[in-house]
Amino acid sequence: MTKTLRNNELGILSFGTDSSPYGIAIPPKSKFNLKTYCFKDCTNQMLENENITLFSALPHTHLTGFEVWTKMIRNEVDIGYLFRNKYYDFNYQNNYLLDPRFTIQKGDEFITECSYDTKNRTNFTLGGLGTDKEMCLHFFSYYPRRVGLKACWSMPSIKEYENFMLNLNKSGDVNIKNLYDPYELDLATDELFDQLNANRNKMSLKKKFEKFYNETNVHMMCNEFNEKVYSQLKPKESIKYVDKCGRPDN
């Protein structure tokens, strides 16, 4: 222990989504992209009087994740990656120093994407704590620490998630008797995914899940859950990225 304290205390800010079947449900597929969002309502609230500087990044998924990135959106313009690991490996996780560092200010927004390869899985891969389940998180160390600034996540709109699952029942992708409303859906979640697993290789079902995650409105958690519904971020302008390693960007 030292009596000579540094000028700034560091904090850790995470982007991503809830590690549950509500946040993540991936059918067997060679590439499944999952985007999450942090909206300016959070940075307006948490960075009202002072900017912060990000200096390291730690991406995190479980065994099927193979790429993680986070972009910063400022004034509706995609101004670049905070960090991108195109070759993520669960067995070789690392905390990466950022060069250059990034200054984050009031009004900034963020998009995080995790990509998964679940083609060798026999069932849907759901969000959860075990390594056989999945996560989508991106941790950034920053200074100076802001009390309460710990997480800025997004999750699918509860209403739209419920309607999506109920519509799978109506379309015959699953067949759960007397499943008509969200309360019954909550009670039938395990049975619902058991039946989805029986149809896991149907291409139409895979496309429905991709469409849902690509189009659903979302809730945000800026340290605590917010019932407000947001549209997914669509930057008006984007930068063309050049891969210094020579691998085509996509």
Radius of gyration: 19 Å
What fraction strand? 25-35%
CATH class of one domain: Mainly Beta
- Our count of helices gives 5
Summed over residues and divided by their number, the pLDDT gives a mean of 90
Class per helix and strand makeup: alpha+beta
Q: What is the CATH third-level topology name of one domain?
A: Jelly Rolls
Largest sheet: 7 strands, mixed
- Residue windows where pLDDT falls under 50 for at least 5 positions: none
Helices and strands, in N-to-C order? Answer: EEEHEEEEEEEEHHHHEE
Give the beta-strand count.
Answer: 13
Strand order of the largest sheet: 7-4-10-1-11-12-13
Question: How far is the first residue's CA from the last residue's CA?
Answer: 47 Å
Task: Report on this structure.
The protein has 250 residues and is of the alpha+beta class. It is 20% helix and 34% strand. The strands form three sheets. It has a seven-stranded mixed sheet. The relative contact order is 0.24.
Write the layout of secondary structure elements.
Blueprint: E1 11-16, E2 25-26, E3 32-38, H1 40-46, E4 52-60, E5 65-74, E6 77-85, E7 96-104, E8 109-116, E9 125-126, E10 137-143, E11 151-156, H2 158-170, H3 182-187, H4 189-198, H5 203-215, E12 218-222, E13 225-230
Parallel strand pairs: 1-11
Antiparallel strand pairs: 1-10, 2-9, 3-8, 4-7, 4-10, 5-6, 5-8, 11-12, 12-13
Protein name: Copper type II ascorbate-dependent monooxygenase C-terminal domain-containing protein
Family: Belongs to the copper type II ascorbate-dependent monooxygenase family.
Organism: Brachionus calyciflorus
